[in-house]
Batch of 4 targets.
Target 1
Amino acid sequence: GIHIFCGKKTGRINVTLRQFFISYLKLFYMDLLHRLEYWGDRHHPKWMDIVRIALGLFLIYKGIDFLNNMSDLVTLMSTQTSFGSFTYILAGHYSVFAHILGGILLTFGVLTRFACIIQIPVLIGAIFFVSTNKEMLRPYSELILSILVLLLLIYFLIAGNGPLSVKMSDK
């Protein structure tokens, strides 16, 4: 391993090259995340909070809509891919859970980044399933709506919740 001397002969620390690079990467990415969070906190107009609240309400609506039409959702997935039926049911329930829980969190501005992270895979899957549809070029396509929601989720993942949100105590 690499020996780092701390000034005394007894202060020798053994660090392998792998440990050194892992700690460097953790430090670099954590610094990047802190800089993105700082930028998001400083550059967040209040009108985007209205967009966040509307996005949250829309996702709650879509989650309830998916829940009411679960069989149609599972049928759509089964015609597009060739996984087992348990996988379709699990993905359908995850979509409902992510939309309803994530929509509630986005609406109130609580754990906004977590809400975005749990919904981004659902939206990527929606873009995949909708883009294989024959009617994707019709006016007001679901593909355009899915891409718009995905872009908004990525924005709120970076920007955070904003000034119009429920504040959680630090305790």
Note: DSSP finds six helices and two strands in the chain.
Target 2
Amino acid sequence: KAAIKEREARGKALREKKIADAKAAEEKKKADAEEKRRAVAFAVKAAKEKEIEDVKAAEEKKKALEKAGYDFISASNLYNSGHFELAFNKFKQSARGGSYQAQEQLAKMFENGLGTDQDYKAALEWYEEAYKLNPLVTNNKVNSLKEKIEEEKNRKDKASNSPAFQKKADKP
């Protein structure tokens, strides 16, 4: 009888342990599910916040491009009426706002010395900026200006090596 009672007690303890283990496993499953739910909720919230930021950034970029377009039109009107210095400043605003047309026009003005001093290097920089946004339009200009800059450098080098330049350089 004692052995039977002892087996029954061990069996009961084993059943209780299995029940407790099952409850613990169920609680862990619930905790894991809650943790996953919170992680997903956090990810969804972060994604929504990022989407809102992206929309705001896109709206700001759109406004900047609209302003750049307005500045480009205004600059074009000034340019066409012969007000090159004013046009140059407006084209610069528009170019900085992201208008490749203004970047290209600004480069042309630097290249030809309209509304500003002639500066092939500045022209090349603006053509390269325009090229980033519209490679088809400005690729030939970029290559052409690189050649002009090289030719100008060669002319200066030849002039600095000429006998007349040397005589001037020798004078105190």
Note: DSSP finds six helices and no strands in the chain.
Target 3
Amino acid sequence: PPGQAAALAPASRIAPVNIAASPRSAQPVRLEQLPDAVFEMQVRVYYEDTDAGVIVYHANYLRFLERARTDWLRALGAVHSRIAAASGAVFVVRDLTIDFRAPARLDDLLSVDVRVLEARRATLLLAQVARRHETGEPLVVSSLRVAALDRASGRPVGIPRWLLDRITPAR
């Protein structure tokens, strides 16, 4: 059935696992249904970002997305180290989906954005798109859930109120 692992051989002791996502998990998103970007930055593809075929190695898109999220938070006045020092809160990616649509290549200039889908007390549901800057062609479309955790205990904590107010000014 959908949402479950394939049937296992009778000799196996491992039970099937229900892999259906939680309703608040990051889900695949349709580009045409996304809200406008709240932040965008440019990233140049360097040789170190590529694989033997001189296209961006898939895991490096995660770095590009992280840089955009970090710079977006900085633009809002939220510096990771200062938030951690003041409140003990750190941000972690809880779950992520990513749709690789087309490859970026050595020397390409990319535009990487951040879009807010939902802001809750301790989590943000975001979408991010990496595009070829010159043409606007979408290369990667992702959705992710970011959670605020207490650095010492690893337990969920609220995102600082002043930051939530900046993320969703019309709350």
Note: DSSP finds three helices and five strands in the chain.
Target 4
Amino acid sequence: VDPKQDYIIIHTNPAFIEMTEYSKEEIVGATLALFNGTLTNIEQEQEIFTALVNNKSITKTLFHYRKDGSAFWHELKSMPIFNATGDIEFHYITTRDISDYMNMKALFQLEREVYANIEHSKELSVIFDHICRHVVLTFQKKCHCAIFLLENGQLKVAAYGDLKPDFKEAF
């Protein structure tokens, strides 16, 4: 990013284009705010901007959004690059997609929560609803969750997350 031009992105690479699903033309000239969405942590975004303004290195795990609106986790590292006279030239930012790692971590957390709820004798319907909400939030990318139980040879919907209520009626 270029500190002399309001921290706009001045270069990108094919891996970042693939990760975000934006074209090079859409990314170059934009700021990191392009990838913000409803669940982006604005405090972390401000910490990154503060580090950029103060020419400091920073590493953050961020929750951003692709062009299609689906979410992804990535680790961002920013390093200031100075010229021979000690003046800031630009900030070199690297990022890597850690969505699979964060999703796995979230599922392990869900597993612990489910076992704790079972140990505390929570109703299965409450546990199933919690599972569906958690899966939808974790995987984001057009993900829906439903839990079916087989009862007397028939499928019954036990939980249906964010699916429309008439989905349940179909069974």
Note: Residues 43 and 167 are 38 Å apart (CA to CA).
